[in-house]
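Chapter review: from sequence to fold.
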Amino acid sequence: MNRTTLSLLAGVVALAAVTGFAEMNTPAAAGSGTAKAAARLPVERTSLLCPAPSTSDLADTSYTSFTPVTTGTGSSGKAELQSVTEESGDGTSGKKKPAKPVLEPKDPGTPATGDSSGADSPALLGTAEGKYAPGWTVQETTEVAAGNGRGLQGVNCTAPDTEFWFPGASTSADRTDYVNLTNPDDSAAVVDIGLYGKDGDLKSTVGEGITVEPHASEPILLSTLTDDQEADLTVHVTVRSGRVGASVQALDAKLGGDWLAASTDPAGSLVMPGIPKDATSVRLIAFTPGDSDADLKVRLSSPTGMITPAGHETVHVKSGMTTAVDLGDVTRGDPGSLILTPTDQSVPVVAALKVVRGKGSKQETAFISATSPVDTRATSVDNSAKGTTLSLVAPTRTATVKVTASAGSGGGTPVSKTYTIKAGTTEDVELPVPGGLKGTYALTIEPQSGGPVYAARTLSATEEGVPGFTIQTLPDDRGTVSVPQTDEDLSVLQKK
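The token string follows.
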């Protein structure tokens, strides 16, 4: 392979690494060579954004960083996680100096932890290069002792993007919901926030043209964008220029609170994995952005197979309007996952679940947004020996899955275990735990054979009788990128 070919392929890898994962196909060029099957290579650079964790002075937040061991990486690289906003030494704007990192990432295969406390904890920007980049995952977990949103809140730090859908937000009197926007770049980002309730678009110009300054984070209180009190909203974040990280913090005066992650892109069929077996209330919120209504079949994937919830066999989602359905204690003491499929014509939909555990004054809330399947590998961090539940679902075909528990942040020996998930079932698997575990550990999920697999992790921490919990879905960790291979001299492409 000549120097021109190497440069071109390096450019393809670098471009894909900006977003973490991309599928690329290059048409065959004129010449004697032919294109070969694409090879999967580790990404070389990635970035993550963590929202400001809480407005409460009673909040304690921990951060966990982890990079899985990935074949094909070099021996060098670096990773940093620090405040998005930086000030000069005298506290004024002007020349910036490096902020003190929240944590120092460790070599691939070992988690690293850090923490902050109080209401002034900033949003964070993370960048990783070289051996630290493939599959780099950072989890933000916050415990709020009392007050609005009390309980356990968790969110995976995410890559910046230009469009986000959040079904499940609210502007009702007992909810305080914020859209957190974080700009990692050197130029300002301009963002529009659209709100859609049960009757459609909540017309407002307040959410249009919001400027997020360079290296800054803006929490936008949803109730300041509309006078309507809506129990169930779909929030649509679009970026006119630049890119941002976006997530919704949903705080309830009585039911605690958690982060609402963005739904996967609108699709005809959706999977929401990992409903806890002791959920006392499950509420489905769905929205279709297209011009046609969506008619969806509702099924619950249980440990024994697919079940159609009595009285909720189907749901009709009107175009441009948010639809909510109370499913009650749909899991009936077993873990489950909700599957939505079209009854006839496929119409793109986004969806999420609001999940409540506990009863009376001892209730806590979490959210499960529709997610994509694990392609090559998914990564979950900040796991503990007793407070972690991993749910795996194989909606269509039986699948074999390998799960590896890393060394602990303070020591321990990695261990792996393989599971078979039968078609149509959800299983809370018995997790492997590192030998001699000290601290927290990471889990990597790698499908080995069979059909698509979806995954979610629940963290639980009961405080004063309140069942605090948070749920994170686990899509692919975007640790590798598909790069075409070829035998020909690609320099001919530059001559055309």
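Two observations follow directly from the output. Confidence is low (pLDDT under 50) at residues 1-34, 87-98, 489-496. Residues 334 and 390 are 14 Å apart (CA to CA).
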